[in-house]
Design goal:
The structure is a homodimer of 455-residue chains. Chain A is of the alpha+beta class and 455 residues long. Chain A folds into two domains: 279 residues, Aminopeptidase, CATH 3.40.630.10; 123 residues, Alpha-Beta Plaits, CATH 3.30.70.360. Helices cover 35% and strands 21% of the residues of chain A. Chain A contains 14 helices and 18 strands. In chain A, the strands form four sheets. In chain A, strands 1, 2, 3, 6, 7, 8, 15, 16 and 17 form a nine-stranded mixed β-sheet that branches. In chain A, strands 11-13-9-14 form a four-stranded antiparallel β-sheet, with helices on one face. The first copy, chain A, is elongated and about 85 Å long. The mean pLDDT of chain A is 96. Chains A and B meet through strand 10, helix 7, helix 10, strand 11 and strand 12 of A and strand 10, helix 7, helix 10, strand 11 and strand 12 of B. Strand 11 of chain A pairs antiparallel with strand 11 of chain B.
């Protein structure tokens, strides 16, 4: 029996085990579920041991981290780390669930349960792929570490610290994460980029207190108007960011990746309908997906000044505030963007107001090396399991742990996910496609073989 | 004895009476003071009767209106209406008063009490000037109506209605109001203009709900950024309003009035210090006082969009709102400004968002006819009482009753006030200069003589 045959033969038991895992309400955000989170960690450790790995539950200042290890690939063999999380989002509002969130139910080929796709199902398919190898061949082509955390849904507060303080334990040559979605049903996907972030607060101060807009208006610079005029300098008429130097570090995407992105099953009209806006917009010369995945942004996230209640109040406000954030793409650096933003605002701020720019939060962008051996192996494994070439996708948001792994462990990260659009990851009626769960297991089982072939 | 000698001879009694008036806590905003407000109305009526007028307290849906009349000037004599208010602002916070708000106290030549300058002292000096004429000469050169309302501090809610429904009673050839301030101590002032108002709310709507700024940012038009870009089109680089047609109805001020305004004892540095701004600003080519008194504005009064709490939240907001108001100068019309504003915004609003402009509130600007006989008489009377030529001043805000009188009664309005800068009209420790109270009485007594000479 090869690993794939093993997975087929054990399909019913594997599903039963997954359902056991999904029944644990390991809600990391709620203190009343702390014991359930701990139980989830123990469950993962037991599952790893059953699969043939050594496993240990590490306590942290927050919820535990589970580390499984199999290191018998032999002298000089590389090590691959698999990351996932066993904690889940809160299930509320409960009355919107069609079946109870912690009583997994299959309907229309979907496994409904809180955590089904985010991320228990995707973590567990890795455990089962490893089990399939160890139970059939008794070995793996590389050393394997499985790291399962219990705080992903509350910001992975202690993870970077854990990786840092367990660098020797976690040293590896590649990281695999399955916590994302395929672009469309039947379309295996490798997530190749994440945008970074530079988040600012801009405070504009004018007069020492609010003034009567009649008695003073016209002779005092209005901080809210000054703020609007500053914000309006951030883009040119083509939607391009007009902060000098902003694009200096932006790397162009290879034409073949852009061409593949343009070929994805996607329509602007469908996207426009999804967001509910009267029309789309953005930087001239790029498609919608390119704008979200490959181009940086400068957005207003919040505005506050003066009187905002009902009706009319004739105040000339003393202060005005904007939250502004830039999504960054490789190789933009949040620190450098902070410098450029501050220099630009200093240049354009009108006299008569004092402007303060505070950098609240920053994160680096990430882009996969699409030519590495791990990626080649993943492409072949996904094709074998899903019957078609995987597509390269991007993500406009951030997944901070990706940067942590790459930075602290210096290993390339492969993001291969088996979710689907509309899976309600943080909403009621979360589901995972059962087909994707099964094919995902097979794909990962193939992946270990492909990684072995590459050696 | 002439009226001036009468005022001198009765100075002690007049002060005692004023203090009685100031002791009545006629706070129109507080229902617990409703009886005090009614008592204030009766007190004014009695005082008018003692001066030699007929007087009646008219009840309204709110606080009473007192009307005094003296109509024995003879066939064909014109009628002058004196307006004032006997209600006062709340006195709170009480602990900041150096002497009790309703126990008038003279310190350093100032009469400290709630309502001393706003407007009881100024209303009462008119009553005493009339008394001085009627007690010494037994007559007045014109018919006189005194209208004292009790709702000025709560928006004069029922006054326009009262004037409208008592048009015959109140028909007159001129209105005198003393409820404003002199430009500086010793400098008698005629307030010659008020700005109007067109107050808008601008609502910008983009996507149907807030979006994640990572997953969508760059491909969806950001309503907060769109709003900022719209607001930034309202002025050009010289601080001039760039809404097409905005200045079409603006009348230039006569050069001699501008020259007189430039000669007023005023420094930009003093004004800048008063408002506490790092620098002043405004429309190029005009002085600070001209900017406030003679030029229209377009100000942001409020801004609200997205996340405005502490820290960073990566939201692409669905909506953004601005409160924007234009101060208007003669002959701008709020309705026309609404039309221009809406047309401008329609022109500059970017695709991808829906913009709604709502006109919340409008008021016409006002400018006195500086060449009428009432003004000539006032100038001579003020010079006689204060020993120097009065100055012409403006006001950047609005006094809605001025428009009401002019519109409903069709009579020119003379605004001659005896307050002073820093008099704390709506704050603790309100005061009126005793010198101005005394000279104000004399000036108004002179005014009746001057009006008589003009006939």
């Amino acid at each position: 029996m090869n690993p794939t045959e093993y997975l087929s033969a054990n399909d019913a038991r594997i599903h039963e085990e997954l359902f056991d895992f999904l029944r644990i309400p390991s809600v990391s955000a709620r203190s009343e579920h702390a014991k359930d989170v701990a139980r989830g960690a123990e469950w993962v450790a037991t599952s790893l041991r059953n699969a043939g790995l050594d496993a240990k539950v590490h306590s942290t200042a927050g919820h535990p981290v589970v580390v499984g290890e199999w290191r018998r690939a032999g002298a000089g063999a590389p090590t691959i780390l698999v990351y996932g999380h066993y904690d889940v989002q809160p299930a509320e509002p409960l009355d919107l669930w069609q079946s109870p969130p912690f009583e997994p139910t299959i309907r229309d080929g979907r496994i409904y349960a809180r955590g089904s796709v985010d991320d228990k199902g995707q973590l567990f398919l890795h455990v089962k792929a490893l089990e399939a190898h160890l139970k059939t061949r008794g070995t793996l082509p590389v050393n394997v570490i499985v790291l399962a955390e219990g705080e992903e849904e509350v910001g992975s507060e202690h993870l970077a610290e854990f990786i840092e303080s367990h660098k020797d334990l976690l040293r590896c040559d590649g990281v695999i994460i399955s916590d994302s979605a395929m672009f469309a049903p039947g379309l295996p996907s490798i997530l190749s980029s994440l945008r970074g972030l530079a988040y600012f607060q801009i405070d504009v101060r004018g007069p020492s207190g609010d003034l009567h807009s009649g008695s003073y208006g016209g002779a005092v610079v209005n901080p809210a108007m000054a703020l609007a005029r500053i914000l309006a300098t951030f883009h040119d008429a083509d939607g391009r960011i007009a902060i000098p130097g902003f694009y200096d570090a932006v790397r162009d995407w290879p034409e073949n990746v852009r061409a593949q992105m343009r070929a994805l099953p996607f329509t602007d009209e469908g996207f426009r309908h999804e967001v509910g806006a009267p029309a789309l917009g953005g930087e001239k010369g790029y498609t919608t997906l390119e704008r979200i995945w490959t181009r940086p942004t400068c957005e207003v996230n919040g505005l506050l000044s003066g009187y905002t209640g009902e009706g009319a109040k004739t105040v000339l406000p003393a202060v005005a505030m904007a939250k502004v954030s830039c999504r960054l793409v490789p190789d933009q650096d949040p620190k450098e963007i902070e410098r450029l933003m501050k220099a630009h605002i200093e240049r354009v701020a009108p006299k008569g107001v004092t402007v303060t720019v505070t950098h609240l939060h920053g994160g680096r962008p990430w882009r996969a090396d699409l030519d590495g051996p791990l990626f080649d192996a993943a492409k072949r494994a996904l094709k074998a399991a899903f019957g078609r070439e995987p597509v390269i996708t991007g993500e406009g948001g951030s997944i901070p742990v990706v940067g942590d792994f790459q930075r602290i462990l210096g290993a390339p990260v492969l993001l291969v996910g088996f979710g689907l659009p509309g899976e309600n990851a943080h909403a009621p009626n979360e589901w995972m496609s059962d087909e994707n769960f099964v094919k995902g297991m097979r794909a990962i089982a193939e992946l270990w073989d492909e990684i072995g072939k590459g050696r």
